């Protein structure tokens, strides 16, 4: 997992797919419509969405195999919990059609981070994660983007 300010993306050297992802992130504004954005077909695409944050008690960790998630908040703030997927109890085994596996949250993740506009979180396939968590004790509206990048495009 990497957590940083969007402006620092050039400190990481993951090649053209990384550059293309952050060029796209630079085009988003609070007025960007929700929905799927094709960046490079199924190799790189984004989903802009809004929802109210929630408490973690009933949440499940998730992980992916083919894609790396690069998530960034556009408006509001949300919490993330992360854990190593191989240390969790599987609830739903990996499903290639859904590109996800789900895991039990028996306790908070190894890492908890709160993010707001101007930051990004990069999640590798071994990074099980729960996003959309409340910051503080009240649910609030957040607008965010999840960019899906095929893992092979970021490997050297």
What are the salient characteristics of this protein?
three-stranded antiparallel sheet, 156 residues, globular, 1 helix
Structure description:
The chain has 156 residues and is mainly beta. The chain has one domain: Jelly Rolls. Helices cover 6% and strands 49% of the residues. It has a six-stranded antiparallel sheet with strand order 1-10-5-12-3-2. It has a three-stranded antiparallel sheet with strand order 4-8-7, with no helix packed on it. The protein has a three-stranded antiparallel sheet with strand order 9-6-11, with no helix packed on it. Strand 2 (35-40) and strand 3 (44-52) form a beta hairpin. The longest helix is centred in the first third of the chain and has 10 residues, at 16-25. The radius of gyration is 15 Å and the shape is globular. The two termini are 17 Å apart.
Mean pLDDT: 94
The run of helices and strands is EHEEEEEEEEEEE
- N-to-C CA distance: 17 Å
Characterize the biggest β-sheet. Answer: 6 strands, antiparallel
Q: Evaluate the radius of gyration.
A: 15 Å
Within CATH, the superfamily carries the name: YhcH/YjgK/YiaL
Strand order of the biggest β-sheet: 1-10-5-12-3-2
Count of individual helical segments: 1
Strand percentage lies at over 45%
What is the architecture at the second tier of CATH? Sandwich
Low-confidence stretches: none
CATH topology: Jelly Rolls
- Multimeric state of these chains? single chain
Secondary-structure class = mainly beta
DSSP helix fraction:
under 10%
Number of beta-strand segments: 12
Question: What's the CATH class, please?
Answer: Mainly Beta
Q: Given the C-alpha coordinates, what overall shape results? A: globular
